[in-house]
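Contributing new records

If you add data, match the layout below exactly. Sequence lines come first and carry their own label; structure lines follow with theirs. Keep one chain per record. Anything else will be rejected by the validation script.
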Amino acid sequence: MEISHRFVDVRSVKVHYLMAGRGDKTVVLLHGGGLDTAELSWELLMPDLTDNFRVIALDWPGYGQSDKPDVKFTIAYYIELFDQFLRILGVSKASLAGISMGGAIAIGYSLEHPEVVEDLILVDSYGLQRKVPMQFLSYLYVRTPGVRRMTYWLLKQRAFVKYSMASILKRPGSVTEELVDQIHQQVMIPGVAKAFSDLQDNDVSWNGLKTVFLEQLPNIRANTLIIHGEKDTLVPLDCSREAHQLISGSSLYIMEGCGHWPQRDNPEEFNRVVGAFLRHESQK
């Protein structure tokens, strides 16, 4: 089934989103930070869901084909904008799947709007860890003038994009030339670095992270599946294990040999697990 590209105005911000499929149940896919987009994270999953569900995947403002407004991009900003996005599209019930930053937004939205979220899928999710690896060095990286600017300059070199993917994708063959080209194209978009830089500025302190939902996780009532790449070096596996213990009735699925982007590291396995979870819930 064809995936259509659409735009909608949300609080004077043009938001790009992908839509496909049919069915009474709506699945909304939320991409991560860095240089991610709806297409990069979800283009391999969407075709597998369209026979059973209406599927929506948006580019967050600051990313992809959505506007790059002059605002402070924070998790709270995205949660509020996401609520308006769903209202404009007329979505009153949905299943959410979020990777990394998208997972944190999905958690925050589920806590604020439990009446909307039927199912929740968290993929190597942000918001579950108290600290990032090498917390103080990460804080210095964020606070040292010019360092991030230098990083994005390096990423404009295609070879560096390919090299950096080794920290995210762990299975042999996952880093393809086509994927490197797609990510490199995102680096070249003017203003694309601001959104993730804002998030880092707001969230990374010298001794920990500010967006931590662990204490609130017992309040989640949606059917929850937690997926985590076994070899993720950005969000440790223990974070998802702890979340699994805190969310009543949740399931934890560990993808062996995969890194922080398991839907790209092993799309066949990822699609099978997600599809089975959503189809099971839709039959209840």
